[in-house]
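U., I forgot to send this yesterday:
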Amino acid sequence: MSTSDTDFDQQGMMSPPRPDGLRPCILCGTLCKDTYKLRCRPCYDSTQNVVSVNFAIYFNTIEHPQKYVVRRWQIETDANGPQAYGLVVCDTLAEARATLVPALMRIVRHPEDDPSLIETWT
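Result:
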């Protein structure tokens, strides 16, 4: 089996192999054979100006007390800083993590981060 630059994510990590040859889109989770930089064609076409995509998991925010919240953050070439997209509210950390697509790397929380931030995935 040969690989090409489309088989690797932004950190140079190979996406997990599947026996059927499908790969999950890192933005929407759709399984497809035609992925570019781990995005399905509709997501790739709509995010060509995206430099970085991160998913942050928060707990006990003001808007959602005692709940876990997953939010997608994007850094775009034409924006003045990170832009937030989408919101998923869950009861447990396991449920929140289950909403993320495979092939992401976990970034631990920095002491100076917002206290409600649990972890970030990129």
